[in-house]
Design goal:
The protein has 318 residues and is α/β, with parallel strands linked by helices. The chain has ten helices and 14 strands. The longest helix has 16 residues. It binds threonylcarbamoyladenylate and magnesium ion (MG). Threonylcarbamoyladenylate binds next to strand 5 and strand 6.
């Protein structure tokens, strides 16, 4: 049987595999996710094993709407407003865990909160077909660049998944924005595909937890999204021998790729991970990246680039 199939044609096969406790890579608007039945402990354990993910790092569950989400998390007024406005979309809400939720304990890694989002496309469709949420981290080995193409998943995790649904490139290209509403202050746990100033219009200014507050955001390791070769941000001096450039707008040098020739941060977000992967595999010895503006999705792009710079150059993936 083929491993990579068209998302529409493969949806029933995917549902069958998930019901039987298997792993399926499923596209969302943000990145490809590595999905399993969130109520099946053995299936969820396979996610951690396939990614080499530390067990203290909890997973996001993917639902088909607020109604399903309410079985797992306790919604207050702010949460309802955010979900109504931005779901389906690149927004994950961390909420207090509901009673008798039935999730596999490994999903929340022992926390008394749960991260949830309603994505668009086949992931939500599968949640409907199973009438239960899918636990899904990004479908990459832990510490490596998140996949925005089915091919990325096939190269990285091809031997570890039962099926990969192909829906072409992910339209947003960065993981979801994560907002915690566990306490009174809305916390921005991760910059992401939803412009945070847009969310702030509904819940007021978002507070970023201190960088060492690992309890609030257990997965936000400072080194992440790492290419194998060194990555240097805000690069402007003459390029050394063997460097490939990741340009933006008019700031472009050869050899290299341009995230957005027109200087559009949304286009740059869409291209970021695929271009990082391409340069990482191009035979170049290092990657220099042009300065990226911080407005809109630029904040999330700069966040990913900083983590990529911190974790890059180890040659074998952490
Ligand atoms: O766009 C996305 O969010 C993608 C797609 C597949 O949905 N998923 C994704 O998952 O990026 P992952 O596992 O790569 O990142 C999930 C993040 C981790 O940093 C994890 O620590 C955090 O969400 N998280 C999960 N549950 C949490 C909780 N209860 N409290 C705080 N952070 C949580
Ligand atoms: Mg990830």
């Amino acid at each position: 049987m083929e491993l990579v199939v068209n998302a529409t044609e493969g949806i029933n096969r995917a549902a069958r595999i998930l019901r039987e406790g298997g792993l399926v890579a499923v596209p969302t608007e943000t990145v490809y996710g590595l999905a399993a039945d969130a109520t099946n402990g053995d299936a969820v354990a396979k996610i951690y094993a396939a990614k080499g993910r530390p067990s203290f790092n909890p997973l996001i569950i993917h639902v088909d709407g607020v109604e399903m989400a309410k079985r797992y998390g306790r919604f207050d007024e702010r949460a309802i407003k955010l979900a109504e406005r931005f779901w389906p979309g690149p927004l994950t809400l961390v909420l207090p865990l509901a009673e008798s939720h039935g999730l596999a304990p490994a999903v929340t890694a022992g926390l008394d909160s749960v991260a949830m989002r309603q994505p668009s496309g086949p992931m939500a469709e599968l949640a409907t077909l199973l009438d239960r949420p899918l636990a899904a981290p990004s479908a990459n080995s832990s510490g490596r660049i998140s996949p925005t193409l089915a091919q990325h998943v096939a190269v990285d995790l091809g031997t570890k998944v039962d099926l990969i649904l192909d829906n072409g490139p992910c339209p947003v290209g960065l993981e979801s924005t994560i907002i915690s509403l566990v306490g009174e202050t809305a916390l921005l746990l991760r910059e992401g595909g939803l412009d945070r100033s847009v969310a702030a219009q509904i819940v007021g200014p978002l507070v970023k937890p201190k960088p060492d507050a690992n309890v609030a955001a257990p997965g936000m390791l400072s080194a992440h999204y790492a290419p194998r070769i060194p990555l240097l941000r805000d690069f402007s001096s003459p390029m050394p021998e063997g460097m490939a450039f990741l340009g933006f707008g008019e700031d472009m040098h050869e050899p290299g790729l341009n995230l957005s020739p027109s200087g559009d941060v949304n286009e740059a977000a869409r291209n970021l991970f695929a271009m990082m992967q391409e340069l990482d595999r191009s035979g170049a010895r290092s990657i220099g990246v042009a300065p990226i503006p911080h407005h809109g999705l630029g904040a999330a792009i700069n966040d990913r680039l900083q983590r990529a710079a911190n974790g890059s150059g180890d040659g074998d993936g952490r």
